[in-house]
Every structure is written in C-alpha cells, then in structure tokens.
Amino acid sequence: MKGPELSSLRPRRLATIRGRILIGVLVLLAAGLIGNSVAGAVTLRNYLDHRAEVSLRASGDRVHRLLAAGPQTINGTQLSALISPILGMTVIGPDGGVAAQAGDGVPEAINRLTAGRLDQVVTVKDDPSVPDLIALRIPTSGLTVKTSEGEATASAVILTVRTDIDRSTVTDQATIVGVTLVLAFATALLILKFGLRPLGRMANAADAIASGAREERLPTYGDHSETDRLATAVNAAFDAQARAEDNIRAFAADASHELRTPLATISGWLDLYHQGGLTTPADLDRALERVDGEVGRMRLLVEELSLLARLDAGRPLEAQRVDLRRLATDVVEDAGVVAPDRTIHLHADAPVHVCGDAARLQQVLNNLVGNAIQHTPAGTPIDVSLESSGGEAVVRVADQGPGIAQQDLSRVFDRFWRAEASRSRARGGSGLGLAIVQAVVHAHHGTVRITSHTGSGTAVTVTLPALPPSR
Fold it and tell me: Could you give phi then psi for residue 315, rounded to 5 degrees?
C-alpha cells in the first residue's frame, strides 16, 4: 500500500508551484553545468592536443638539428633528455622492430605510423588496441643509440604523448556536476520551503474564510513582495465580497420590511372582514380602498426593484434622440397639478438632446422633482434648469428646503435609505427613488451628484453625454 500511495502523490507533487519551480531550476542549472562542463572539456582537450603537438614538433626539430651535423652516437638517457622527459620514445631499428624504448613509448602504435607519415603529427584514437595518443615519427638515419644491451642503429624514432588522461578529466567533471546538482536540489528545496511559506499561510487563511470566518484575512507584511501584493489584492476582494454580502443582507431586510407593512395592513383588514367587523357597505368600501392602496404600494415597490435588477444586470435601454427640455416641461407641468401650492421654475433656453431611453430619463426627472416636493415644507420653491455645454447635458434640480445633514449625504443613493427625520411613509416613498436615479444615469454613461447644506437647500446635478443640435 505504501508504494502505490507514494507513486500516486508524485504527479500531484510536481503539479504544485513548488514542484514546477524546483524542476525548472534544476533543469536550468543542469543545462548550464553540463554545457559549461562540455565546453570546458572540449577546450581543455584542444589545448592539451595543441600543446602536445607543439612539444612533438619542437622535439623533432632538435633531433633534426642533431643529425644535421652528421652521424651521431648517443645513449638513451641523453636522447630522452634531448627530446623531452615528458614524451614517450620508441626507437625503431633497421629491421622495423623496437630497438629501444623510454618513457611512455607505445610499441602498439608502430603499425599505425607508416613511412608515408614521416615528420607528420598523427592522432590515434577510437582504437581499442591502442591508447589515445598523438605521435610523431622522425627519420633518424645515421643515429646510433647506446642501450644497456649494446648499441642499436635507429632508422626512426617515434615520439608519443598519451591523451587518454582527458577521459578521466571529463569523468571527474561529470562527477562534480552530479554532486553539484544534488546540493542544488537540496538547497533549492530548502529555499522554496521557506520562500513559499507565506503562500501556505495564505491558503490556511483562505480555508478559514471559506469555512465562515468572515473577519479573517490573508496575512500581509508590508514588504511589497509578490506574495504580499497578492495577499493585499485578495484581501481587497474579500472586503468587497463582504460589503456585497452585507448589502445583500441589508437589501433583503429592507425589502422584507417594506413589504411587511402593506401585507400586515391587508391582512388586518381581511381579518376584520372575516370576524364580521365590516358590517356596512361604507366600511367595506373603506376596507377595499385601503387594500387597493397597499396593493398599489407593493406593485410600485416590485416594479422599482425589477427596474433596479434589470439595470444591475446591464440590460440595454432604448437608444433614441431625446429632448430633455420637452421631458422637463412635462414633468414640471405634472408636478404643478399634483402640488399646486408649489412654485416650480423651469430654466431651459434651448432644446437639450441626449441619446437614451425617454421613459427612464423622464422617471429620473419625476423622482428628482418628486423628492424635492416630498422633503421640503409647503410653499418651498423648486428650480429645474437645463443647459448644454462642452458636449455635456446638465440637469439641475434645486430647492430651498431644510437640506440634508452632511453625515447623511454619502447614503442618499443607498437603496431603502431615508433620513431619520423622514423615515415614515407620510413623507418618504419606498426609499428607492434616488437609487433608481443613480442606476438610470449610470446606464446612460452619465454622473449624478448631490450638494446640500443644512438650512440652505439641496441641489441634485445630473450630467449626461449631449448630442449636437439636429439640423
């Protein structure tokens, strides 16, 4: 059981970041070491061969200069000293046999060095019967060599340098490369173990977050390393997710709260009817009127929520040429009928055209003017202005009401939010009016901002991309 378990873990081990980095480092290191070793061995062998060839030719030149003075008799020790103590020497007699030998002479190479190769450097390798060597055959007619066995006439002298020692050098280099790779593997494993430890902590923290620890975050150290930047980015994503979840919870709670009240009202009137509390036609008509009003309130709320959901999903709106001045004129006229006690001024010197959905843009104007009417005392004037400048259409709805506290300005576009002073539905609607304004304006690639000061009124400014005047 132990063997298969280990073998099944190996591919998984290599699939990790640590395994891939380790394999990559080792491959690069092995390639570099092997390439460097091969290049070094080739360079060393070429250098040794060249040096041996130079030494052979220099020794051959000295022998030629010696014989140039005429026949010579010399003993083997003197001849070895004349040639070079590091070279092998084989003296060939007139019969072609070995007459004398000194140093690393290689008699087996005689048959490979023919008379046609006199005074030529010959390389002998890749022959199992002969060691790797570089040889030079020098004709020595007139040279007599004294040996312990007597005098021998030398017809030629073969000088040799063995090069098979290079093989041991290459073998030593291969051993060094292997040991270096083992040490590099152990060192890289330790470095990766400590270097990737932050990723392990991050994984543990992420597991804790996935298990429900919403306040847990990935550890950061402020050293601006790659893992630290990754942890910071992931923490920002977790924070955004937590805010989104909180918004969803708040949205669900607010939506249920908004629906609970009309449902409770409808349920109360139905219970009263079932208990026989509505005995007269007038009571029944009053009950139906209240139920119908609450149903209309829920229908409006559901429609507004559906609109926000469509806008959040990015569903496309209608794209047509829209005259904002015409829409604003209709909205101001309708508001004057609904609130005849108000003075609503429209300031628009010329048509202002945008590309968008006319119904949704009219809803934006209705919500802005309606908010100004609902949240200001009776008789408070309202100004609606339109202008086109610099390729932008600017719509501004301002009132001279009590204004909004500064701490509440950042929440006016939140869904279901109402200022504490106007939480009751007697003055506020569903709490979705400004949220719909913001969503529709953003869907038209525009911006909306609100400025207000307590006691000096509120102004909402909507900016949309403008179209050039039609010809």
Answer: -65, 135
State both tokens at 359: 């119904």
Looking at residue 318, the DSSP 8-state letter turns out to be: P
Q: Please give the backbone phi and psi of residue 309, each rounded to the nearest 5 degrees, phi first.
A: -65, -40
Q: By the 8 A CB rule, do 418 and 431 touch?
A: yes
- How much is the pLDDT for 39? 81
Residue 346 host element (H or E): strand 344-347
Cβ atoms of residues 53 and 159 within 8 Å: no
The model's pLDDT over 328-356, given as tens digits with 9 standing for 90+, comes to 999 999 888 888 888 889 998 888 999 99
157-213 pLDDT per residue, tens: 777 777 766 556 667 777 787 788 788 888 877 877 777 777 777 778 878 877 777
The whole-angstrom separation of Cα 276 and Cα 331 is 45
Which residue, chain included where needed, has tokens 């060094």? 176
Q: Angle at CA 74, nearest 5°, toward 69 and 76?
A: 140
* DSSP class of 315: P
pTM over 0.70: no
Question: What is the distance between the alpha carbons of residues 226 and 224, in angstroms, rounded to a whole number?
Answer: 7
Residue 120's pLDDT is what? 66
Q: 100 pairs with which residues across the strands?
A: 91
Q: Could you tell me which of 319, 376, 312 has the C-alpha nearest to residue 344?
A: 376
What are the φ and ψ backbone dihedral angles of 453, each rounded to 5 degrees? Answer: -135, 135
Report how far residue 272's alpha carbon sits from residue 78's, in angstroms, rounded to the nearest whole number: 140
Which residue pairs, CB below 8 angstroms and at least 24 apart, start in 363-366? 363/436, 363/440, 364/436, 364/437, 364/440, 364/441, 364/462, 365/327, 365/328, 365/331, 365/395, 365/397, 366/331, 366/334
